[in-house]
Amino acid sequence: MHAPTDSHWVTVKHILRYLKGTTSYGFHITRGSSFALHGFTNADWVGSIDDRKSTAGYLVFFGQTPISWKFGKQRIIARSSTEAEYIALADDTAKVIWLQYFLIDLQVPSISAPTIWYDNLGATYLSANPIFHDCTKHVEVDYHFVYDWAAKKEIQICFIPS
Amino acid sequence: MLHRLIQLLSFEFKLRDLGAVHYFLGIEVQSTGMGLMLHQHKYILDILTRAGMTSCKPVDTPVSPLKITILPDTSFSDPTRFRQIVGAL
Questions:
Q1: What is the nearest CA distance from A131 to chain B, expressed in angstroms?
Q2: 3-state DSSP assignment of residue A144
Q3: Which element (helix H / strand E) includes B88?
Q4: Is the distance from CB of A56 to CB of A41 less than 8 angstroms?
Q5: Beta-carbon separation of B59 and A12 below 8 A
Q6: Are B66 and A47 an interchain contact pair (Cβ–Cβ within 8 Å)?
Q7: Which residue in A12, A74, A52 sits closest to B87, CA to CA?
Q8: How far does the CA of residue B31 sit from the closest CA of chain A (Å)?
């Protein structure tokens, strides 16, 4: 923001053109009977040409209504696409668990464990199967974090084709 | 239950009931049969008007990460305008 360049402005104009095409988009908050949380996660791999960090994000639905989302560049550099997806999965898991406990605090009758939908089979298998892969420490932490919650059946990781 | 809540709040705080919400912090709220529809149609048009882009061609994606780079580039001629538009997003 302190020193905008011509290419920054081109990017901003691109965003505005996107907004132009989405003026009719919105959130539909519906009166539903489902109190289940559903998280959807996705990541690219080495998308940034400057530092090769991946871009990832999640979107969490409460019943049919989207309530929480975050998209952005990952903090660390992933050395494989599964690694990038797994870091994203760990971020989504942390958020969904937080929301689940928040709902419990609000005494919402949350029926089932939250589900996280995912389009990377490698990461889905990793969360279900404690085979140790040749991971570096940063992913190992995310790996254990997600695996632990999935093993306790506090969350469910499911594959969804992209 | 809602009226009771408003009544209880009014004991503690000075408040005025403005009825159903229609436009709040740039977000439009429309009641549908199924629930509420939240959108920013008006806010988007306001930004496009400020940027002079009301008749621009829409695109399907907001950004291509492959095109964003910190490589040296010429400074934008009107940084204030840049910040005003980005700040509104």
A1: 34
A2: helix
A3: helix B79-88
A4: yes
A5: no
A6: yes
A7: A12
A8: 10
Contacts of A44 in chain B (CB under 8 A): 65
Domain containing residue A109: 29-159
Report the residue of chain B nearest A3, measured CA to CA. B75
Does A24 map to a domain?
no
Give pLDDT tens digits for A13-49.
999 999 999 988 988 888 877 888 999 998 888 888 8
Q: B79-88 and B41-50 helices cross at what angle (nearest 10)?
A: 180
ipTM of the complex: 0.78
Cut 0.90: pTM above it: no
Total structural domains within chain A: 1
Q: Is there a domain that residue A102 lies in?
A: yes
Tell me the C-alpha distance between A52 and A109, whole Å.
43
Q: What is the pLDDT of residue A60?
A: 95
Task: Chain B: give the shortest CA distance to residue A134, in Å.
Answer: 29
Q: Phi and psi for B23 in degrees, rounded to 5? A: -145, 120
Please write the tens of the pLDDT for every residue from A83-111.
888 888 889 999 999 999 999 898 887 57
CATH code at position A86: 3.30.420.10
Chains A–B, number of C-beta pairs less than 8 Å apart = 124
Beta-carbon separation of B63 and A3 below 8 A? no
Q: Residue A42 domain-assigned?
A: yes
Domain membership flag for residue A23: no
Those of residues 2-41 in B touching chain A at CB distance below 8 A are 28, 32, 34-41
Higher pLDDT, B72 or B46: B46
